[in-house]
Amino acid sequence: MAGPGNDLDATRAWTKDQWRRALLAERRRVPASVRFAEAMQLTTLLTSGRVVGRGQTLCAYVPIGSEPGSVQMLEEVADHGVRILLPIVSGAGPLDWGWYDGREYLRPGPFGLLQPIGERLGESALRIADVVLVPALAVDRSGTRLGRGAGYYDRSLSLAAPGTPLVAVVRDPELFDQLPSEPHDVTVTGVLTPGRGLLRLR
User: Fold this and answer.
1) Could you say which residues bind substrate here (predicted)?
2) Which one-letter DSSP state was computed for residue 137?
């Protein structure tokens, strides 16, 4: 990765905001053809049964901008018999949740997110998820996840049932040895990348 991963001495002192700026800039440089190929790889992984199985509930999200994945990925996972929960931003508290019923039932929400327009299930709906996919800009090998800074997932992930896999989704170069962390950060238990697949972190 050009930037954050190259000079460990320089990045060791970086703040979270410095990391975010560098990671977002790097993602913007990724060609559309590469993003498409990575979305296809993620789709294959998520429909293989190795991450989540038929009849299970996957907490996911609709990738936006340069985030890895696609709406089509969610369509194909749902077609494999997986129920999908999507986040709904509601105020400053933990995320609300709703079922994914198809792309035609998504509408723009805060921060450019696409959200389901059906019934809202409440913050505690996260407890029914068998696997939680978590958006991230980067993750390190101890499970520290770097998000965009709004804090919604840090306020929400503690509501998942004990032992539920919390899996950050990033590009292959976005897995690092160490990222800055704070006491309120909720660590993830795994990472999913297009090329490496599902890796357990702790």
Assistant:
1) 62, 67
2) S
Positions at the binding site: 16-20, 62, 67, 145-153
pLDDT single digits (tens) 114-128: 999 999 999 999 999
Contact (CB, 8 A) for 202 and 187 = yes
**Under CATH, domain 16-200 is a member of which superfamily?**
NagB/RpiA/CoA transferase-like (3.40.50.10420)
- Tens of pLDDT, residue by residue over 47-75, are 999 999 999 999 999 998 899 999 999 99
Q: Which residues are annotated as a binding site for ATP?
A: 16-20, 145-153
Binding-site residue numbers for substrate are 62, 67
